[in-house]
From TrEMBL:
InterPro entries linked to this entry: Host-pathogen_enzymatic-act, N2O_reductase_N, WD40/YVTN_repeat-like_dom_sf
Species classification: Bacteria, Bacillati, Actinomycetota, Actinomycetes, Kitasatosporales
PANTHER family per the UniProt record, alphabetical: DIHYDRO-HEME D1 DEHYDROGENASE (PTHR47197:SF3), PROTEIN NIRF (PTHR47197)
Recorded superkingdom: Bacteria
Protein name: YncE family protein
Organism encoding this protein: Streptomyces melanogenes
Amino acid sequence: MPSEHQSSPRAGRDGDVLAVVSQSGPTISFFDAVSDRHIDTIDIIAEPHEVCFDPTQRLLWCTTSYHSGYYHANSGRRTELTVIDPDTRRVVEVIDLAPEHGPHGLALDTERRRLYVSVEGSEDRPGGVVVIDTETRRPLGRIDTDAPGPHWFAIDPAGKTGYATNKEAPFVSVVDLERGVLTAKVEVPGSEGLAVSADGAHAYVASPYAGSFLAATEDRPDTGIKVIDARTASVVDTLPTDGVVLPVHLTSTGKLLVGELRMEPDPESQLGRQAPGRLTVFSADTRKRLGELEVGLFPLTITSSPDGRIAYVSCVVSSTVHIVDLETLRELSRLDIAKAGEPGAHGLAYIPRPA
């Protein structure tokens, strides 16, 4: 008989579902986690970006950031959060956060029933994080991050400290979630995705800001993952990457997954053209590079199964989701979202079957 280590990575996932956001669909599609069979697709308001599953309330939360476009190239910021029942696959409520706008990053504290949503700044206020009560589905307040574009947000497992990465500001904002105040600014030259270690001792931050990197023709900053010591609020190490990184994800088994954007020469463009992206895997404990795998164009979101065995990488330009066995670093399958007429694969959520 095969050992547990040799068993199929799909084993024991009957009834589990993967939710995939199509940014320009605008839709959320649901797929069987074992067979990859398309189950259903629901329409939501434009333009959805990230999605988060709350197992306590059994609800999906989805941010809608812009009327169209993306950061620095959009037709106006939206103000809504969409709440979805993933079992009946229907929209439960659309919550208007106005005057807050440009909601994007999501971080969930199930123990305290809190959802943290990053929002962009405006002329009369800096960017920040809106705090939502997940039971009443109503805002409780906001925490300023003192930067115009906090785009991603993560919290430590204790629910006491939050980190907001800032695309343009040269620091990562550290906030005290209990007091609701900004406590530190960690010097980082523009930042993207992030994750926090299981013990809360370190944060892993993608840097530099992808937009500034692509726009530069010389003196480009080194790309990689900045390791932040939570106790000193300072960068203590850098995990180098070949390409600029946007998404960062930490699995339950301690593997740090990063999505590298890659370009190749194009005689018609100074910046080049999109090349297949790369999923790069590090050990969060040893900070050693464990391996890599080619994925689609422009990896933008990464998540994993609760047991840390399978990774899911959405690539927005190719509109594909790549399903990867993290023990063998082998691609198990690929979801082609564009074939269903839903381009722009972005946010991902793994939804275990109901108890």
